[in-house]
């Protein structure tokens, strides 16, 4: 079962995966990176809790559920605004709506189309009676 070629391939694949993720396979480094990400998320949530009103926070969470990339982008934008000092007081729901409208105007429109391909001849259930 100990095939040297198989072991060499496994080692190459492991090195390739580690290179892709930027890690050396050190579990302590992975833990440190995870802790850093968790700390950044906690800092972001505390900033948003200080800057947004409850209604605005609920609206942002709803947006994040429907469009995660857009919600994350707006969260990051609000955090940057708070860090720079552009936010004075809490952002109300109406102010958040205005901010979202300005973001929507800046973003390119993406149109999605749904195309129905009905092939009645192949799926006709009337032919089953024969």
TrEMBL record:
A Gene Ontology CC term for this entry?
Answer: cytosol
What GO molecular functions are on record for this protein? DNA binding
Q: Superkingdom of the source?
A: Eukaryota
Which residue ranges does the record annotate as region Disordered? Answer: 15-39
Q: Which family does it belong to?
A: Belongs to the PDCD5 family.
Record-given protein name = Programmed cell death protein 5
What species is given as this protein's source? Papilio xuthus
């Amino acid at each position: 079962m100990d095939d040297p070629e198989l072991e060499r391939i496994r080692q190459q694949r492991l090195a390739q995966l580690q290179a892709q993720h930027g890690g050396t396979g050190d579990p302590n480094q992975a833990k440190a990176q995870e802790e850093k990400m968790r700390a950044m998320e906690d800092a972001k949530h505390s900033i948003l809790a200080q800057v947004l009103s409850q209604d605005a926070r609920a609206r942002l969470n709803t947006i994040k559920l429907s469009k995660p990339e857009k919600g994350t982008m707006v969260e990051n934008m609000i955090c940057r605004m708070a860090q720079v000092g552009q936010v004075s007081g809490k952002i109300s729901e109406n102010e958040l709506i205005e901010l979202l409208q300005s973001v929507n105007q800046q973003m390119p429109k993406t149109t999605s189309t749904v195309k129905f391909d009905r092939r009645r001849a192949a799926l006709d259930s009337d032919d089953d009676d024969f």
